[in-house]
Structure formats: C-alpha cells, structure tokens
Target: glutaminase
Amino acid sequence: MKSPIPDYLHHVLETARPNEGGAAADYIETLANADTSKMAICLSMVDGNVYSAGDDKIEFSIQSISKAFVYAIAIEDAGLDQVLSKIGVEPSGDRFNQLSLERNTNRPMNPMINAGAITAHSLVVSPTATLDQRTERILNALSRLAGRQLHVDEEVYQAELKDADRNMAIGYMLKAAGIITCDPQEAVRGYIRQCAINVNVQDLAMMSAVLANAGVHPVSNEQIIPQTSVRQVLSVMTTCGMYDAAGDWVSSVGFPAKSGVAGAIIGALPGQVGIATFSPKIDERGNSVRGVAMCQQLSREMGLHMMDASHVARSTVQTSVSTLVEGEHKTHNGSCKREVVVFKLRGAVRFPGAERLTRALARELGQPDPLDEGSGSHADACGIVFSFRDVFSLNFIARRLIHENIARLLKEGKVLVIIDPSEVLEWDKAKAKDGRHPKVVDNETEARDYIGGTGCQAVSQDPEW
Ligand code: GLU
Model:
C-alpha cells in the first residue's frame, strides 16, 4: 500500500500555491533573485521517518532559523545564567532588525531578534573566540542536527555583508551597552555567516525533530541538545519565533516555530513531529506567505495545536488478575488466594499516568471501603506485578512517584515484581530506602516463576499471562 501522507502533503502544497501574496526579501540581493515558484514541505517524525513533497532538495539560506539553534549552542557554551544575563526572553513586538534594548537591563529583548541573535552568536565558543572558530562550531553543530555536512553559501554571505549597515549598527549598540565584549564587526560578520548556511526542507525538518524529540537525534539517537536547553529554545520560539506575529501564530497555528527571510519556516511539536516549509515570498513581517498558510492548514487538519488537550493519561494503566496453579512456591500462607495482580502501563508516562497507577494501587490493594464497591479487591494478592514492558519512557516525576509506591508496598511486606526489560524505572539498588528491593525481571515468565515457583502456570483473563 502506498502511504497517503506524501499525497496529503502534496495537497497542502497545491492548496497554498495559488496564493501570490508577498515578495522575496529585497534587502539581500541574492534573496531578491530567488525563484519564487519553488515550494516544499517536509515532516520528520520523532523516530526519524521523513515525508516530503515539492522541491524538497532545493537549497536556500537558513537565515533567522539559525537563531534558534545558535541560542541552544550559546547556552551550552556559556551556560544558561550567563546567556540570560545578556539576552531577555520577552517578545518585543518590534521588527526583527530593530535597534532596541530592554529598558533598565539594556539586554536585547529576546534571542530571535537580530540584537539578541548577534549577542548569542558572540557567546558561542567563548567571548574571545575568532570568527572562524565560531563559524566552525556552528557549522558542525547544525550539520550534526541535519545529519549531513552543511556549507556556507558564500554568495549570500557576501551579498548580505555588502548591505550590513543596520546589523553593524546593532553590533555597535550592543558593544556600547556592554552586552557584547568582542569586536562588533567580527560578531556581526559571524552572525551573517551563520545566516548564510544552506539547507533544504529535509534538513530543517530533521533539525526541528531533534527539538521535538527532547534533544535526541531521531536517527542517531544521540542526545545532541540537553533537554533543559530544548525547553528554553522552544519556549522562546513560541513567544518570539514569528517576529512580531507571535500572538497570531500561537492562536492560529499553535506550535513553536521560527521563520527566516529566505522563506522557510520550522515548527517543532514536542513529542510528535518536526515540520519545515519553504516558499520565498514573505509578508511585511518577514514570514513566508505560503509557509504560514501551509502551517495553518497542517495544524488545523492534523490537530497539531499544542493547546489541544490530550487524552493519553486516561488509558495508560490496565489492571488484570491471574490465578497461579501448580506452583511450587512454599511461602504461600493460608489466606493467599494465589492471585497475582498485574498493573500494566503504556507509552510515555508522565505525572497523570503515574497518578492513575498510584490511585489504582491505593484503591485495589488497600483495605475495602464500604462506600466504594470494588475497592480493596486485591488486598490479599500473593504477588503484585508492575509491567513496564510497553513503557517508552518515564519522566522524572512519574519515576519518583512510582519509586515511592514501590517503597511503600515493600514496607507493607508485599511480594513485588517489576517487568522492565528496557530499564525505564532506573531502580538503583544503592539508593533504595531501607535496603528493600522489588524483583526486577525481563519478562512475564520470569515474573510468574518468581512468585509461584519455577514452571508454575497462570490462569488469567490476560492472554499474556
Ligand atoms: N541575516 C538576516 C538579517 O540579519 C536574517 C533575517 C531573518 O531571517 O529574519 O537581516
């Protein structure tokens, strides 16, 4: 069967194509001569599967989209505190190349306008690094994100350098305000070089998918950007990524995004997908006219708005009961009904999923409450199993809550077995409270053998038991 997804992307492209609004950026000569008939769209899933349509191999300069990634690099190289002391996180409502600084602090308002981006660039490697060192660092980092070696488009670089008076003015303003300490011309030239790196929509979708995938590269599985930096970058993209159209964007499209004057837009929907569109004609705010239309359509038709409530938490815990027969286990006491209760979690478990497990444990394993029919139904179970076999990840609060539940059940003397072949629970023997540990195994058979004795059978409503 042929996947319908590329056909759908093609349909999105053709729906936007008749829109002739906007014009190619004219303040950089090479961009002014761009072929405005070119259009492309690409989605990269967080497992690295890529779908694209249109001119998906056409290269263009990354321009302002680089700002999001260079901000992440600056955080890595200088530390978040230092970056925050130099660059704010407030939307400015100004044009991208406004000569403006925040009142009182003198910081550029955010890293997505040129003043903030030039400052972020100056923090890459170190404030005393050379232009070449910073360019090499940025090119390597962006290439790693894209999954192929990228290059600077020298023609675009030279063209922009020729008309760089405004950005140079911003550089000198930053130096005078004590925000940058290096040579302003060097910082601006480096910033312009970073903007002149060539990419295509497939590169951009993959780079966005790294942001959507908590900083882990979907293909190489390497943690390229620390998770805390990803959160910082996506937050700033949400509030400041679309120049002064951020409010419009968040309400009508609703995923963190960044656009560039060459006509590309990236979007990153956490946990789901990286998106990239390209069409050179931009509106008066600097955003690609057809790109905005394509992102609006994708968001509407594919349910990609980040504020659309998810129902995932409602289905993450499943309880089932098995009765063990022919077990050789000698420790069963008289009151034991040879019953094993299995609590199975699924997916990427966060606080709501862990809370549902906690609620089920307290209700079903606790004492019966006459007002709550079904409560205490497994208070005498001879074994309790947590199955994390289908759990992709636990976030820190889910893990902490489940660890606490485990400690409490062990303290009550329960026999507890954890099926955790991928070690998502990260049970640390050295750190366990009171030296009590659950039995951690790889599969159902090992769990059954442990509770009921080797070779025991289970009669169950659950086919896996
Ligand atoms: N290099 C461009 C500039 O600084 C980037 C602008 C943009 O893409 O918004 O003017």
Observations:
- Residues 417 and 439 are 5 Å apart (CA to CA).
- The chain has a mean pLDDT of 90.
- The pocket of glutamic acid is lined by residues 63-64, 96-97, 114, 160, 167, 192, 195, 260-261, 286 (CB under 6 Å).
- The chain is about 40% helix and 15% strand.
